[in-house]
Amino acid sequence: MACVIGQQLRLYNSLGRRVEDFTPCAARGGEQSVGLYSCGPTVYSYQHLGNMRPYVFADTLRRALRWKGIPYRHVVNITDVGHAVADSDTGEDKLEVAAARERRSVEDIAAFYTKDWLAALAALGVEPADEYPRASAYVPQMIEFAKRLTELGYTYELPSGLYFDTSKSPGYGALALLDLEGQIEGARVEHVEGRRHKSDFALWRAEEPGVRRVMRWDSPWGWGAPGWHLECSVMSMSLLGAHFDIHTGGIDHRQLHHVNEIAQSEAYLGDGQPWVKYWLHNEFILLDSGKISKSAGHTLRLANLVEDGYHPMAYRLFLLGGHYRSQLDFTSAALDAAQATLVRLVHRVSGLRPLPLVETLAVARDLIPAQDKQAASYVEQLDEAISADLATPRVLALLQESLRDTSLSAEGLRVVVAAADGLLGLGLGTLKAAEVEGRRSLSSLEPGEVETIERLVSERTQARKEKNWPRADEIRAELDRLGVQVTDTPSGPTWELR
Ligand code: AMP
Ligand code: ZN
Questions:
Q1: Distance CA 68, CA 89 (A)
Q2: Of 195, 51, 201, nearest to 126 (Cα)?
Q3: Which atom, in ligand 1's list, is nearest to the CA of 286?
Q4: Is the CB–ligand 1 distance for residue 425 below 6 Å?
Q5: CA of 56 relative to ligand 1 center, distance in Å
Q6: Ligand 2: centre distance to CA 14 (Å)
Q7: What digits encode the pLDDT tens for the residues 346-402?
């Protein structure tokens, strides 16, 4: 394990609700690499813009670890079974509902939406995880896990399945700051016949009498499917070891999913140790508080932004412009501002290329010219910012400040910019100006604008027929002003948006 250099990395741990020094397992006598597990998507539909934040956030965390010279292994699960509609313990599986709706197999549904999600992450510059385990491939291990919990006396069986008895879990709900009973009135409205405590949750969801599920496995508790929380405990332990360093997810998981993961995992391990030391959660992106283009807020996804002429990295920039623990309002104005900043940054940085590869503080310090004290100071400030619970807005501000700072040497500036970009992951070293400036799509036009353009194009054709060149030129200038490019072809003029 490379030693931690520079500022101590400090992270906000939801367990205890405070910013803490990050001490990797290896330093505590465990695994060599930092084990990092992020709850992944339920692949029954497109992932919306909000769903992208957990992975951009985890990507930022990985970049921070790398910056510090801390090796890591990252696992992100794919939920393709077990997640019932409304996060409940009974009822239909989200994947099965989607398969029926789209008249496709559950495998097709999972494969299709997984591929779409991975493509969106790649467009956002999120580096791939080391493993993407699928829940459906781990059901035998989940059954073994639940059997062990049963042997240890943590479970009870009901006609609807096998339940975890949360009253047997000391400290149940500590992550969520739940009260002793682990019950928040109204938080879970679902009534389950025979359930001993409201907080008890399903490890195994038995098939309802007379219903044959599409995804079904045989188990000691009959045919059925695993409960939602089981997969993350089983897959993370299988791939990262019994105890690992960091578990991440959206803030909603802090109240239920992660609480239950902890309860079953600590019961299973029974070694009196906290299962995972650091729990990190990103806040939500608020999609419906601002007017967004023409799509409904809750289904708005990255592809819609691209159709509207935004570059995916503008969305990444928008995300990083806020701290991951702050709620962010997604609005067209905010995205426009991010897009404009991205264009400016790319233009400015193009002149500095090629940028060196600077992914670690050690390399940054090494490459800064000895006499450039100012550039060296920027590198230390970048380190301070990322070490302070991943303060990306500050990293972004330092990047912009350094680009305006005329006291830096050319080489010093290149190193600072490359270092900041290594942390932010915007790809400033390679993005092309023409690519980020984008082409607007027709759907971005105001009502009536297409008609206006069509009218101008035909007036220009008429003017040309009449050999009224000044008028034709005037109209072309007007179209130019509207961002419309006209091309004359043998079959007449065509036009497109620039
Ligand atoms: P799901 O596919 O519903 O399990 O969600 C995938 C991830 O996105 C989870 O970690 C959620 O906590 C997170 N998430 C869902 N909605 C939002 C949002 N609006 N903003 C940020 N994260 C979200
Ligand atoms: Zn999970």
A1: 41
A2: 51
A3: 19
A4: no
A5: 12
A6: 15
A7: 999 999 999 999 999 999 999 999 999 999 999 999 999 999 999 999 999 999 999
Q: What is the distance in A from the centroid of ligand 2 to the CA of 181?
A: 23
Residue pair 325/393 in contact (Cβ under 8 Å)? The answer is no
Q: Is the CB of 41 under 6 A from ligand 1?
A: yes
Give ion ligand 2 contacts, CB < 5 A: 39, 232
DSSP bridge pairs for 73 = 35
Q: Is 38 in the pocket of ligand 1 (CB under 6 A)?
A: no
Q: Does any ligand 1 atom lie closer than 6 A to the CB of residue 39?
A: yes
| Sign of the alpha-carbon dihedral angle for 51, 44, 313, 62 | positive
CA of 39 to the centre of ligand 2 (A): 4
Q: pTM value?
A: 0.87
pLDDT digits (tens, 9 = 90+) for 113-130: 999 999 999 999 999 999
